[in-house]
Structures are given as C-alpha cells and as structure tokens.
Amino acid sequence: MSASTTAPARDRLRIAIQKSGRLADPARSLLAACGLSWRQSRDKLFCFGESLPVDLLLVRDDDIPGLIADGVCDLGVVGLNELDEQAKARRQIGLPDAYQPLRGLGFGQCRLMIAVPEEWEWQGVAQLVGKRIATSYPAILGAWLQEQGVDAQVVELSGSVEIAPKLGTAEVICDLVSSGATLAANQLKPVEVLLESEAVLAGPVHEPDDARAGLMAMLLRRLDGLSRVQDQKLLMFSAQEDCIDALARLLPDADPLLRLPGGNGGTAIRLQTMCNGALSWQRLEELERAGAQGLMVLAVEKSLA
C-alpha cells in the first residue's frame, strides 16, 4: 500500500468507478444525471469526458482508494465498506489518511455484520472471546474487536466467507449483508452491526490547487442538487382565500404557499409550493376536501436552490 503522493497539475478531473458490479451502472447513471457524458476507449477502461473535462477510469472497486491515494484519480465512487477498510489498514501500518468520503450517494446500501450459527442463542459480544471469525474486512473487524475488548482470532478470507463455519476454518463470520438470504442459506444469522455502508463519492484529504478544484466543487453542487430534489415535488392548485390557512396546515413539510399571478376568472387564487415529503393519494384527497382545486403534482429534475 503506497503513501499519498503529490499529483501533478491537471486541468481535467478524473473519476474512478467500478468497471462492473453492483455499483457500476448506478454510478454512471448518477454522473450522467449531473450532466456528464463520455466517449469510451476501445479497451473500455477509460471514458473521455465530452460535455465537461471530467474523465472516467473503469477499475475494480478495491483499487479505487489506492488510485486516489496515489493521485492517479481525483475522485471515486466506492463502497464505504471498502474505503473504511483500506483507511484503517493504512493507519495500522503508519500511513497518513489519503482519502475521505465526500458524499453518500444513496445506493449500494448494505451492512457489515457479525453472523453466528442459527442454533446459537446470542447473548452478546462476550460470546466471541476465543472464537475464530472469518472476514474479508480484517482491519474493520480488528478495530471493532479492540473497541469491544474482545480477544478473538481474525481469519482473513478473500471470498466465500459464509461457508467458513461449514469448512471448519472459523466458528463465526463478519461479512456484508443486504437481504440476508445468503446467510440463511448457510444456516447463519446476523447479530451485530459493525458498519452501515453505501456507495460514496470519495476524494483526497487535500483538495488540488489547480483547475480540478473548480470541477470538484461544481460536481458536488450538482450532486447536492440531485439529492435535494430526489424526494421533492412541485404542488400546484387553486383555492379560495378562506381555505389557504387550512391547506398550509396540511403541508407542514412544504415551503410557504406562493401566490401566483392570474387565475381562472373567478375568486380562486393560484398557489404553488415545493413539497419535501410523500404526496400520497390519501394526502391529495385530504387537500381536496380542504378546498384545493385542480391539484397538479410535478416531478423536480434539477435544483440550484
């Protein structure tokens, strides 16, 4: 594992993402939603940015933290589990922090958990004393065991962790869990959470001092804008003056009602607001009963607010 190096000045931003795997397609879709487009190389390992000077490098998930540390890439979309594992491993051998999570991206959610045989009656972490625990995340597990004051043996495996108890190489495992189906198929049950993980945008500890800094800031602004509008809806309707206060009380998670010019020729006032919560059919019907007319719900694609 190499230490962080000073990257040469560049005017193009380089982002590493998974070439294939569960984070690959969501990462590309999210970056495309930020207005990025690319032309892919013949070897399908590099994508040259066409809409903006932002290029993609398509690599293995576990290579991304090291590429950021070495200055080969400026940003990366990677699982927090992988980022945290490599960060803790660097600290264990005396290397300084070289990368950090900048934004959670809202996909690739999973948990790093301790799982024990189904027949065990789980009574707490004290049961792990003296046990062998198989994992692909030895640094995270080792740090957690130390925090818990538990003396257990960490058995590092690169894959197929869930079958370790059947093979007799460990009594317990520490592995990523999403649905839990794989654990159940191997007669295991999750009992302790070590890390709540998701895909994150990772970047260097020290921001570059050239044109890439502005590109990073722009990308983060766009990601923040997408995050804000993810659950937002623009609600438009008309109502009589004496109904407006009651309607506002039914929209506690919305911006103040904005009066719009014009109307339908009657006494109704045109109104709109930005809603940050769910607008179910039941909620719309409640608004209608309170005096809202011509209700219209519009999705919000982008926001710079």
Q: Could you walk me through the main structural features you see in this protein, from its secondary elements to its overall organization?
A:
This protein has 305 residues and is an alpha+beta fold. It has helices spanning 24-33, 64-69, 80-92, 138-148, 164-167, 181-185, 211-229, 244-249, 281-289, and strands spanning 13-18, 38-40, 46-49, 54-59, 75-79, 99-104, 110-117, 132-135, 153-156, 172-177, 188-197, 199-204, 233-239, 258-260, 269-275, 293-299. Strands 2-3-4-1-5-12-6 form a seven-stranded mixed β-sheet. A five-stranded mixed β-sheet has the order 9-8-10-7-11. The chain has a four-stranded antiparallel β-sheet with strand order 14-15-13-16, with no helix packed on it. Helix 4 links the parallel strand 8 (132-135) and strand 9. Helix 3 (80-92) packs across helix 4 (138-148).
Distinctive features:
9 helices, single chain, 16 strands, alpha+beta, disordered N terminus, 5-stranded mixed β-sheet, 7-stranded mixed β-sheet, about 30% strand, globular, about 300 residues
Short description:
By secondary structure, the chain is α+β, with helices and mostly antiparallel strands. The protein has nine helices and 16 strands.
Q: Layout of helices and strands, plus pairs?
A:
Layout: E1 13-18, H1 24-33, E2 38-40, E3 46-49, E4 54-59, H2 64-69, E5 75-79, H3 80-92, E6 99-104, E7 110-117, E8 132-135, H4 138-148, E9 153-156, H5 164-167, E10 172-177, H6 181-185, E11 188-197, E12 199-204, H7 211-229, E13 233-239, H8 244-249, E14 258-260, E15 269-275, H9 281-289, E16 293-299
